[in-house]
Amino acid sequence: MKLTDEQVIDKSAKWVVSFFIASAGLWLLAAALLAYIAAAKLTDPFFLSSFEYFTYGKVKIAQANAFVYGWGGNSIFAISIWIIARLSQAEVRGRVLLITSGVLWNLGITFGLLGILDGHMNSHEMLEMPNEVWPLLFISYAIITCLIIVVHRSRKYPDTIAPQWFILAAILWFPALFLIAWNGLEINPSPGTVQSVLSMWFGQNLIWLWLTPFALGVAYYIIPSIIGKPIDKYYLAIFGFWCIATLAPWSVVHHLEGGPVPMWIPAIGTVMSIAMIFPIAVASTNFHATAFKDIDKVWSSLPLRFVIFGTLSYTISSYIGVIFSLPSVAKLTQFSIINEFHFNQRVYGFFSMIVFGAVYHMLPKITGKEITKSAKSFHFWTSALGVMMLLLAYLIGGLTHGVLAQQPALDWTNSVIASIQPYFLITEISFIILGFSQLVFVINIWKVLVPNPFENTGRSKKFVSKASTV
Predict the structure, then answer these.
(1) What CA–CA distance (Å, rounded) separates 158 from 175?
(2) Dist CA 458 CA 413 (whole Å)
(3) pLDDT, position 372
(4) Residue 94 pLDDT > 60, yes or no?
(5) d(Cα 83, Cα 167) in Å, to the nearest integer?
(6) Please, are residues 347 and 211 in contact by the beta-carbon 8 Å criterion?
(7) Fewer CB in 10 Å around end: N or C, the chain?
């Protein structure tokens, strides 16, 4: 039987996408283990205390880097390649070079995390890996990005749509952010306070201009693909895109409220954070007005359920972030554990949930194997439970921490730390649930990625021929 155009594209992307998804899954498990160790140390400071490689500071930084660069980077490569190829109606090119660059990317992260655990790290936010690994990471990333651009440039139709804007912008913004930060921090070090501002600016924008627009682009692709209806009020998407591009880079500096920087810097951040209401509202309108037109399909389609959970998490927590950017509120929360709420909401509640949905949507199309509904459903409910427990613990615990810390008359150990200790215990339990959930996810994807010699190949071929070409 002659393959359709979509099946030819999926075939060209199969091994590349499978490699990056398999790699992402392994990094997800590594990050889950490190997250649990870090959380356990907050409830029991003597946990693994005899191992100098597992001090809290090292493990916490290694976990963030493993999650963002390992899980996040490989997921972005895999899904970007597939969606851009599908939308361009062009086959994936340079497959050997893509996999080779992916191997170098993962080797660089491995050496970087070992360097962090060994104590050889930088002090810059999300640039903590040793200097020696960054040229390797940058070169491998540049090669992968160029090959994705080649596929996009080969598209059959000149017009582009929202998923392409957000995904391509995300993969291009990362090297731009890195070069700006690396120049100001390592090549031509900026004076004094500017380094602290630049370091924070890079770390926060890695979330806002790399992970966030990518996840939004995936949502713009997955939601109409599964529902079978165009995005509601699609004309607003271009406005939302340019709002994120212009406002997000400057909104992040509100985190410097109360720090040793000129007051106009956090003031600009506050203004831009308030203005972020517009792109948040646009995304919410586009996604949820479309999805809730057919709520039965949202509930019955597990990939779509993951994506909608992620978009709802993005909307709600982003509005909370706007409130926390106000100076009167920031005075209470700025130096509390509320910052953990912001990070974990972005990487777990928003980015990861959308990636889970995208992987479950595309894997059957490129492998011809379907993951059982019960396995995906179990993964969804354990993920949702773990995420909600984690975020509520950091949110309520952060507010409690911030309020008590403003009362100097209180005994710090007996009052402040004792009051937030139960929330640390909840976060530890949450990371156990999330770790188990992520193990289920990795088992799910590896079962369809790794060939089974006892499998009925005729059945798989039959499934491929009937696979949806959406």
Answers:
(1) 25
(2) 66
(3) 86
(4) yes
(5) 9
(6) yes
(7) N
What value does the CA radius of gyration of the chain take, rounded to a whole number of Å?
A: 22
In the DSSP assignment, the letter for residue 1 is: -
| Angle at CA of residue 303, ends 209 and 17, nearest 5° | 65
Report the amino acid identity of residue 311: T
Q: 69-78, 97-106, 191-200, 311-320: which range is least confident on average? A: 191-200
CB contact at 8 A, 42 and 321: no
Answer yes or no: is pLDDT of 455 > 60.
no
Per the document, the length of the chain is: 470
Closest CA to 87 of 188, 24, 165: 165
Q: 468, exposed or middle or buried, with CB in 10 Å at 0-12, 13-18, 19+?
A: exposed
Taking the C-alpha atoms of residue 38 and residue 431, their distance in angstroms, rounded to an integer, is 10
Cα angle value 18/22/24 (rounded, 5°): 120
Distance CA 412, CA 35 (A): 26
Give 212-236 as a DSSP string: HHHHHHHHHHHHHHHH-SPPTTGGG
Proportion of the chain in helix, strand, coil states, percent, rounded to 5: 80, 0, 20
Structure tokens, 281: 């509202």
Alpha-carbon span 215 to 282, nearest angstrom: 15
Q: Is the pLDDT confidence value at 257 over 70? A: yes
Please give the Cα distance from 14 to 208 (Å, whole number).
Answer: 29
Which domains are seen in the chain, by residue range? 5-466 (1.20.210.10)
Q: Among residues 465, 444, 118, 133, which one has the least CA distance to residue 303? A: 444
pTM score of the predicted model: 0.90
CB 387 within 8 A of CB 346: no
Q: DSSP secondary-structure letter at 408? A: T
Dihedral sign (CA 264, 267, 269, 272): negative
Give, to the nearest 10 degrees, the angle between helix 73-88 and helix 134-153: 10
Q: Which two tokens stand for residue 309?
A: 């959970």
Q: Which has more confidence, 402 or 216?
A: 216
Cβ-based burial of 296 (10 A; exposed 0-12, middle 13-18, buried ≥19): exposed
- Amino acid at the residue 312: L
Please name the residue ranges forming H helices in 44-128: 56-65, 73-88, 95-117
Helices (H) and strands (E) in the chain, counts: 19, 0
